[in-house]
Design a protein that fits this description.
The protein has 276 residues and is an all-alpha fold. The chain has one domain (66-275): MetI-like (MetI-like fold), CATH 1.10.3720.10. The protein has 13 helices and two strands. The two termini are 39 Å apart.
Length: 276
């Protein structure tokens, strides 16, 4: 037991330093006002009431809308991709999942600049359209560009958990459903889809968290005119220097994510009870 405690102790110390202490600092900044060094401070809730101003509510609304659209696209595309990957042999599946994860090895900033070269007025897509005599389209600095950038960035986080859930399904259950007369559609909806719900929930939560908290993609593909929650928090900490309001925004974002997690877990629990 003593040996076990010695092994755990460095991990606990490291967790306190990089997780617990920053969280405590953010909470403290969110309920205080004053210097960023936490001197001459006074406790207040004005940082949270400020979020209720129309300009900030619009930012949160815009973030949620773009986040939900991006997650919905990722869910449809990701589920189809994950489902067809599981149709191959295990060795081929591992190779295909590797190909899905390869873009994650590249820095997000570089991937975003790659999209700029594709979507700009003189980019590859417009040059391709000109070959067919079509007029150039404006893709940059639009919702379309931001959503495309978000989807390409977070899609692997949807594919991997769904693929893992589908891969764990016992093939005998699918065979049993087919032996009992279920067609392919009902076999998919009653067996595959239901048993892959945990993977769907994990994928949705991860992609939603990433989509509403990112700031690089909206900043570059949105041309600076897109102020989402992640951009607003970055702006408060780096440009404005209002760490107190930035911390309050971070707390609100965390609460939104926790509520989403709670709702998704409750939905998952109800699905399991129905399955039983």
């Amino acid at each position: 037991m003593k040996h076990y405690n010695k092994l755990v102790r460095p991990y606990l110390i490291w967790s306190i330093l990089i997780i617990l202490v920053p969280i405590i600092m953010i909470v403290l900044y969110s309920v205080t006002t004053g210097g960023n060094a936490l001197v001459n401070i006074s406790f207040t809730l004005k940082n949270f009431t400020k979020i209720g101003e129309p300009i900030y509510l619009e930012v949160i609304k815009k973030s949620l809308i773009l986040g939900l659209i991006s997650v919905s696209i990722c869910l449809v595309v990701g589920y189809i991709l994950a489902y067809f990957i599981t149709r191959f042999d295990d060795s081929v599946q591992d190779l295909l999942i590797l190909l899905v994860t390869i873009p994650m090895w590249i820095n997000t900033l570089l991937r975003t600049y790659a999209w700029i070269s594709l979507l700009s007025d003189n980019g590859l897509i417009n040059k391709f359209l000109s070959l067919f005599g079509l007029n150039a389209q404006t893709f940059m600095y639009t919702d379309f560009a931001v959503i495309i950038g978000l989807v390409s960035d977070i899609l692997p986080f949807m594919v991997i958990p769904i693929h893992t859930s589908i891969r764990k399904i016992d093939p005998s259950l699918i065979e049993a459903a087919q032996d009992l007369g279920a067609d392919k559609f009902h076999t998919f909806t009653k067996v595959t889809l239901k048993m892959s719900i945990p993977g769907v929930i994990n994928g949705v939560m991860m992609t939603f968290l990433l989509s509403i908290s990112t700031f690089v993609i909206p900043k570059l593909l949105g041309g600076g005119q897109y102020m989402l929650v992640g951009n607003l928090i970055e702006n408060q900490f780096i440009s404005v220097g209002n760490w107190n309001f930035g911390s309050a925004l971070s707390i609100i974002l965390t609460i939104i994510i926790l509520i989403g997690l709670r709702l998704m877990k409750r939905f998952d629990k109800e699905e399991k009870e129905e399955a039983e």
